[in-house]
Design brief:
The structure holds two protein chains of two kinds.
Chain A lengths: L7 H10 L3 H27 L6 H13 L9 H24 L19 H4 L11 H20 L2 H12 L4 H8 L3 H23 L1
Helix pairs in contact in A: 1-2, 2-3, 2-4, 2-6, 3-4, 6-9, 7-9, 8-9
Chain B lengths: L29 H16 L3 H10 L4 H13 L16 H6 L4 H5 L4 E3 L2 E9 L3 E8 L4 E8 L7 H15 L9 E7 L2 E7 L6 H4 L7 H20 L12 E3 L5 E3 L13 H8 L8 H4 L8 H17 L9 H10 L5 H4 L5 H10 L11 H12 L11 H11 L1 H23 L5 H26 L1 H25 L10 H9 L5 H21 L9 H34 L3
Antiparallel strand pairs in B: 1-2, 2-3, 3-4, 4-6, 5-6, 7-8
Helix pairs in contact in B: 1-2, 1-3, 8-11, 8-15, 11-14, 14-15, 16-17, 17-18, 18-19, 19-20, 19-21, 20-21, 20-22, 21-22
Classes of the chains: A mainly alpha, B alpha+beta.
């Protein structure tokens, strides 16, 4: 996979940080599929319904654009965590609006800075967390972007079943119900979707 | 296609003849594949890492597919139960209902560490960080020390650490902190020990020195505890007031013992942190880095330094930076405790100074011998520490006041030479001889006076410069009245410059060089015979003088840089 070479995202990130506008636009464009996927997964798993999350995606990317100066991280990991933070913040608002709840309190402050793990925090992490080496993490993050892009290239049915089963962690009975199919058919669809997704990823790499 | 379902659930797909080696190919039993993938996703959702890795191992062919599922799992929103580096998304659903977000509170919650719950950080040292923690299974409060993993250079060192910790764990003594457990969790080495509520001796001494008897009783208890360590083949190596805790009933309790030596092995990297950190209570053999000479008597030295601190309120040697302190520990002599606190009994001062002897052989043989002598002192019996001989007292004075001692030595030798030559030469000029000798006398008086000024801290900095200037003026006066040609005597100036370097101050060297050049210039103008030589000679001499000053100054500067380097390496 992308282990050996310098990952293209890091390169984009570095160029964008040094003020290259086109690199920044490209970076955001490349993250759109990712943000869309995560946004949908997040909002829909709260709502237990299909939701049009395009506004949320737009808002998040816009916020990220506006807050670009405040981003202090250097790795994809930090970048994606930052994006997810903004997304989570916006998604919470989005969910409130969706529920018709009034926003009684002021917008919650979200620090634009990703908490960097310091030496003392390092060993305080959850003991059940097996831990990852930084390089593993980088590869994984890189993969997440590619994966999100691959998911967006799938057919609607395939994308949907993966969204429900993997990203929202619904049981097959629920997935079948939501998709209006029988359970065996859904299982078959899911298996094919996963295989298709893997092929898609592999294809993209060649 | 769907027969042969494996009910044990863990066998590999390769056992199934229907399945081809390539999962990407079309002709795969889809039901079979579904079973495996579904089981895998279930292990992911339930955090069942064991079954998960079993599936990975049994199905190497599915690696890509499984990795794909892994990544999908990472993309999914975090479940509230899972706490990882991305827990900011913790349980946002709660955040919609309740006002504060769960993520905000996450950091305030007590952190769990294995069977311990960490409360707060109570200390930080060269080895690591100490937390107050609760051991949940036994429901007791302990002090948990996390060893910085960077402190271990190799696997071997880790083994040594465990060996030492186990040896220390076997100790049972009311004045020694008990070690309950040594272990490792997620690569983090730690040990759990008694948590002692209360302050350290260092903190309790901040209000001022102790009364003599109080100090003696306290040190006696500490010395007996240290002896117990020695009997168990453990040398503490890092005895200092901050490592002595004061228990509830005021009894001292030793902590941080034995393990210290692991961190001052041959590797310079580990040594600088600990040695330069607190040289004030360190024996000269430790300060000099002679690890092989460290013995129980090194601890006796530290005990003496602690006694000194308890009696006078300050450690025997304490300078503004580690380098100066180190030089003092190795070469200097502490100010007599009675000078700092007149109420200290002479006998107690002798006990203290015997511990602080530079050579280990002159100290008490064991910590118990020190404790016994302290007991004799308390009982009003004559102590073992005797009044030392004249020679060793002179040596001590020389170490205590090196600036004065070296000048007096030089003046004595110079006047001796002058006196002998006067006696040997029969037609000596008596008035001239008197003039020279009284100049030497004046120089001696000036030195003694300056030494008195040097003792006053607020005058010390200024005094060094004034003293340097006085030396140059007196030398110039001497050279002015001396009978010519005085050529060889001009060696005096470079000597003054070189000697000024002994104080490790670049500015003093620069100052001395300038004063010497100036003095030489004045001397040349005043003395007529100085110009009866080729005109370039004085210029060459002055240039060489400047070069000498530069070399000495540069050398001092280098040492300063090294000192700063080590100082910055010191751990917080």
């Amino acid at each position: 996979m992308a282990n050996g070479e310098q990952s293209p995202l890091v390169d984009l990130l570095t160029r964008a940080r040094s003020g290259d506008e086109s690199a920044r636009d490209e970076l955001f464009e490349r993250c759109r599929a990712y943000v869309t996927l995560v946004a949908r997964a997040q909002v829909e798993s709260w709502m237990h319904a299909k939701v049009d999350a395009s506004d949320l995606v737009q808002e998040t990317l816009l916020d990220a654009h506006r807050g670009w100066e405040k981003f202090r991280g250097q790795t994809e990991g930090e970048w994606l965590v930052w994006l997810r933070r903004i997304l989570t913040h916006n998604a919470t608002d989005f969910a409130r609006r969706y529920h018709g709840t009034q926003k009684r309190q002021a917008r919650r402050e979200v620090s634009m800075r990703v908490r960097t793990s310091d030496a003392s925090g390092d060993f305080l992490r959850d003991p059940s967390d097996p831990g990852e080496s930084p390089s593993e993490l980088v590869v994984r993050r890189e993969r997440e972007i590619e994966l999100a892009e691959a998911v967006s290239r799938l057919t609607d049915d395939h994308r949907e079943v993966i969204m429900l089963r993997n990203l929202q962690r619904l049981s097959f009975n629920e997935v079948a119900e939501r998709m209006g199919r029988t359970r065996p058919a859904t299982q078959m669809l899911w298996t094919r979707a996963v295989r298709k997704l893997q092929e898609e990823l592999e294809h993209h790499h060649l | 296609m769907t027969e042969n379902h494996d009910t044990t659930g863990e066998s590999g797909i390769e056992n199934d003849p229907d399945v081809t080696r390539n999962p990407g190919a079309v002709n795969v039993s889809e039901d079979r594949l579904f079973e495996l993938l579904d089981r895998y996703v279930t292990t992911l959702h339930s955090d069942d890492t064991q079954s998960r890795s079993a599936i990975i191992q049994r199905n190497p062919d599915l690696g890509e597919l499984l990795a794909c599922l892994d990544s999908l799992e990472h993309l999914a929103p975090l479940r509230p139960s899972r706490r990882g580096p991305e827990n900011e998304t913790g349980s946002v659903l709660d955040g919609i209902v309740a006002e504060p977000t769960a993520a905000d509170q996450m950091s305030d919650a007590p952190a769990e560490f294995g069977k311990y719950v960490l409360f707060e950080e109570v200390g930080r040292g060269g080895m690591g960080v100490v937390y107050r923690a609760k051991q949940t299974d036994l429901d007791r409060v302990v002090a948990l020390k996390m060893i910085l993993s960077s402190r271990f250079a190799s696997e071997e060192e880790i083994q040594r650490f465990y060996g030492e910790a186990r040896a220390a764990g076997r100790l049972r003594h009311p004045n020694i902190v008990g070690i309950h457990e040594v272990g490792e969790l997620n690569g983090q080495h730690y040990f759990a020990m008694d948590y002692v509520e209360g302050e350290s001796l260092e903190e309790s001494l901040q209000t001022g020195p102790l009364a003599a008897n109080e100090a003696v009783e306290c040190l006696q208890t500490i010395a007996r505890a240290v002896h117990h360590l020695h009997e168990n083949q453990i040398v503490h190596r890092d005895l200092k007031p901050s490592n002595i805790l004061i228990g509830e009933s005021g009894e001292p309790i030793l902590t941080d013992f034995g393990l210290a030596k692991l961190f001052e092995s041959n590797s310079a990297q580990t040594r600088t942190g600990t040695i330069i950190g607190t040289p004030s209570y360190m024996s000269p053999e430790q300060a000099g880095g002679e690890a092989s000479r460290v013995s129980p008597r090194s601890d006796v030295y530290s005990l003496g330094a602690i006694l000194y601190k308890m009696l006078t309120g300050r450690p025997p040697f304490q300078r503004g930076n580690p380098l100066d302190t180190l030089v003092e520990v190795m070469e200097g002599e502490p100010t007599l405790p009675t000078r700092l606190n007149r109420s200290i009994p002479r006998e107690l001062e002798r006990i203290c100074l015997r511990c602080l002897e530079k050579s280990p052989e002159k100290r008490y043989r064991t910590a118990a011998a020190l404790a016994d002598d302290l007991e004799r002192f308390l009982n009003g019996e004559p102590v073992e520490a005797r009044q030392t001989g004249v020679i060793s007292r002179i040596r001590r004075w020389g170490r205590r006041e090196p600036a004065l001692a070296s000048r007096l030595g030089a003046l004595f030798v110079a006047s001796l030479i002058v006196q002998i030559t006067y006696v040997v030469r029969e037609n000596g000029d008596f008035p001239f001889h008197v003039k020279v000798m009284s100049l030497f006398g004046l120089w001696t008086v000036v030195a003694v006076v300056f030494q008195q000024f040097l003792k006053r801290r607020y005058l010390a900095g200024f005094t060094r410069f004034a003293w340097a200037a006085a030396d140059a003026i007196l030398l110039t006066t001497l050279l002015f009245i001396a009978e010519g040609p005085i050529g060889p005597l001009l060696i005096g100036y470079p000597v003054l410059i070189a000697a000024s370097g002994l104080f490790f101050r670049v500015r003093l060297v620069v100052f001395m060089t300038c004063v010497s050049l100036l003095s030489y210039g004045v001397l040349t103008l005043l003395r007529g015979d100085m110009l009866e030589m080729p005109p370039q000679y004085p210029v060459i001499y002055a240039a060489v003088l400047a070069v000498v000053g530069f070399i000495v100054g540069y050398q001092v500067y280098r040492i300063r840089v090294l000192s700063r380097h080590f100082e910055h390496r010191r751990l917080p």
